[in-house]
Design goal:
The strands form four sheets. Strands 2-1-11-7-8 form a five-stranded mixed sheet, with helices on one face. Strands 3-6 form a two-stranded antiparallel ribbon. It has a two-stranded antiparallel ribbon with strand order 4-5. Helix content is 26%, strand content 19%. The chain contains seven helices and eleven strands. By secondary structure, the chain is of the alpha+beta class. Helix 1 packs across helix 5 and helix 5 crosses helix 6. The protein is globular, with a radius of gyration of 21 Å. The chain has two domains: 61 residues; 224 residues, no CATH class.
Length: 296
Amino acid sequence: MRRRFFSIIASMLAIAILLPAMSMAQKMPKKHKSAPDETIIVIVGKPNPTFNESQYPHLRFYYLPDVSFIVDDKAKTKVKLSGFSQETTATYYGEPEFIVRFGSKRHIASDNAVYGIVVDKNGVVAYQRAFSNSLAAHNDNSDEMNWTILSVARKGIGQKGPLEDYLKDYVEKGKEMKLDKDKSYTPGQEPTYKGWEDGDIEGLELPDFKMVKSDGTAVSIKEVIAGKPSFIVFSALDPDKNFGSAEEAQEKLKEGKVKSGRDFFKSMAKASSGDGTPPMFWHIENVMYNYFPPRK
């Protein structure tokens, strides 16, 4: 009798959890007019087999499995707050060389943020900035968001307006960013141009570097961009985390597979919790592509 009771309660709660998730997974066909056809996501680290890339149909995921980093300790940490961005210094190791050098100047795989750049059709960097995950941590498709990745402004390295302005100019209108002749990158050498110490790459042609897909297929960033203006987002995923635990718990509740009250409440906690994916992935799908992945 007790087991039957938990089974009924579990089924009712599973419906309450799954129905909102299903309703949020409705695809709206019209993307933002200035958004590229897809956003390139470069994960610093190895692929995680439990991470479901298909939940983000407009994001294309690539990985840098041979790159690692160590966040600087308190004596060396430099925190910069600018709008909604937060950047912390870290030291990167491994290959590709450019990512290691650049990441050591601008921590591109922070736990608290993602790092975005816009390149024009010639591969020249027109825009760069960090976006804090707090910008989208608690939003869903029922919220009216006053601040989005498109609209937050930042006074920084070179840009004067929000990301939306740069996507309009370089993606929608196809403008060309002026190549800065004083900025160059030579493999095997640390750049010495003014601004490199702060990770300034605006006006620099993005150096080519190798990545892999989740199936292990090797590809270069130049091949992925293929002469198109692009929005590239750097981020990180825990390679050892079970990103499917929330979905597994939801299925367990849905099917009434709970053995005890303790098991029931543990499953409830997992089913209703986030899976640890950077909320900016969901946010980019939402504001740039009008698509709403399930939000756990």
